[in-house]
Amino acid sequence: MFTIDAHLDLSMxxxxxxxxxxxxxxxxxxxxxxxxxxxxxxxxxxxxxxLRKGNIGLVVATQIARFVAPDNPLPxxxxxxxxxxxxxxxxxxxxxxxxxxxxxQIRNWTELEAHLAxxxxxxxxxxxxxxxxxxLEGADSIVxxxxxxxxxxxxxxxxxxxxxxxxxxxxxxxxxxxxxxxxKELLRKMDELGIILDVTHLCDLAFWDALEIYxxxxxxxxxxxxxxxxxxxxxxxxxxxxxxxxxxxxxxxxDAWMLSPNWERGKSTPQERNVTLNTIIDxxxxxxxxxxxxxxxxxxxxxxxAFGKEQAPADLTSISDLNTLPELLKQRGYxxxxxxxxxxGNWLDFxxxxxx
Length: 356
What we know:
Elements: E1 3-8, H1 10-15, H2 25-31, H3 48-53, E2 56-63, H4 80-99, E3 103-105, H5 109-119, E4 130-137, H6 145-153, E5 156-160, H7 181-193, E6 196-198, H8 204-213, E7 218-219, H9 237-245, E8 250-252, H10 270-273, H11 277-291, E9 297-299, H12 325-331, H13 336-355
Parallel strand pairs: 1-2, 2-4, 3-4, 4-5, 5-6, 6-7, 8-9
Helix pairs in contact: 6-7, 12-13
């Protein structure tokens, strides 16, 4: 079934992990044998051939570069200008993939319709370009609002103001503060440009500020439920209700620590914790119970988002295995119509309203 994944850090993997994403994951992992500079070496799940194999024809693909102040222990760049330059290198990689015919950028509904028509023509997807919508995860690299306009001109269509820790515009996971004045101005400018607000990673205080200030389309590209795994990275039921009221779609994230309480990185394993794709459906189903329907859930896997197979659902050998989700959803009582909503329909309906 045609599938949309609303969160993949493709350019980060290409440039920071030095992965040639035009190759199968088996080749990527073989080339990483013996490397230990990153915890997930040899455990890659994502590449462009694997996306095609799984009929994942449209993704939301990120740029990401954090600014860190001198007292911030997180990894990142020491100035917003350096962070901006990093995102522009990532943009150059996407452009190289476009030039090679591996990917095609989607900036509006007309381009999306054309891509869907091309993708769905014929059974063989092996030579088709994967469509991508460009998103920025964390706004630290937006030096000032003029740079947001530059980013929009380059095709940026979604933005999450925060990532981990304190950011220049908003506090994210494991930090807490209301939106700054700069953050409020960023949201107003996003609204003016028509850039989708991604509320993933916003701390609770910034989340509620953002929903009050920003009037445009909102989604949560990759987020799960606090009621099932209690952590500030997840959404509370009240937050989920507010997003449903705004017509948002929430993409199920597949990082195992978000799916299993008290996960210990480097010690816990998906097998011992029984983290599988069915665990993702638990979170999707929780959102459906709050909504009373299946209109607000989708996939935002975040696979290879600084973790790999060692911290992903145990029944995944590559991202192509997302094509097993429809049968699992049916086994959980989801109708064929609702399965299509989860795999692609809700994201397409959202974009039709946002861009139509």
